[in-house]
Amino acid sequence: LLFDQWLQVEKRTNTWAPNLTLSTVDQNHRPHSRTVVLHSYDDRGFYFCSNRESPKGEQIQNNPFVSMCFPWAHSRCQVRVEGECQLASPADSETVFGKLSLREKQYYGFASLGKEHQFNQSNVYTNLEGYREYEESFRASHTGGDIEVPPAFGPPPLSHSHYPINSSDLRSEAPHGRVSETRRH
């Protein structure tokens, strides 16, 4: 797979981070983009961690077609992936959560609080000091392997039907040198 080759090259750089831009569309057909962390990928698709109850999670549930972009500055290229996103099953969520480091479990445990919680990651915080105190107390009270999978946690795989993988090589003399690979499931 061409993506594997590009990823291995990028991982050898000092600047590589597993970040990507994820774009969704809301019910009013307005686009929304944000940076998320690529957790993993396999034959079924690409996995990133998300809060099912966040605006992003709700947008994916209402319109599962999304776009991702990996901005790989060192390689001077970007990789775009388009496809359909499905919510992970509870078993997949448990598997992914179990593979996270303690720090990641603390973060996602805290970030995937219920929608009504005052410090849900998608809320606007009016009390930043209170937020920081709550986060610190949450981390301090969850220092072992005692963090359960939050109900709103769900790593949705981006997969199904087909998706183009495009690389715009910014080193090219042409304004947009492109390579495309389509993968069908």
Overall description:
By secondary structure, the chain is an alpha+beta fold. Helix content is 28%, strand content 32%. It has helices spanning 2-11, 55-62, 90-99, 102-111, 128-141; strands at residues 19-25, 31-42, 45-48, 65-72, 77-85, 157-159, 162-169, 177-184. A six-stranded antiparallel barrel has the order 1-2-3-6-5-4. The longest helix has 14 residues, at 128-141. Mean pLDDT is 75; it is low at 160-164 and 170-176.
Write the layout of secondary structure elements.
Elements: H1 2-11, E1 19-25, E2 31-42, E3 45-48, H2 55-62, E4 65-72, E5 77-85, H3 90-99, H4 102-111, H5 128-141, E6 157-159, E7 162-169, E8 177-184
Antiparallel strand pairs: 1-2, 1-4, 2-3, 3-6, 4-5, 5-6, 5-7, 7-8
Keywords:
185 residues; alpha+beta; 28% helix
User: What is the overall number of helices?
Assistant: 5
| Helix-strand makeup class | alpha+beta
Please list the strands of the largest sheet in the order they lie side by side: 1-2-3-6-5-4
| Percent of residues in helices | 25-40%
Strand content: 25-35%
Low-confidence segments: 160-164, 170-176
SSE sequence, one letter per element: HEEEHEEHHHEEE
Major sheet characteristics: 6 strands, antiparallel, barrel
Q: What characteristic shape results from the CA principal axes?
A: globular
Compute the number of strand runs. Answer: 8
> What value does the average pLDDT take?
75
- State the separation between the terminal residues, measured CA to CA: 13 Å
Radius of gyration: 18 Å
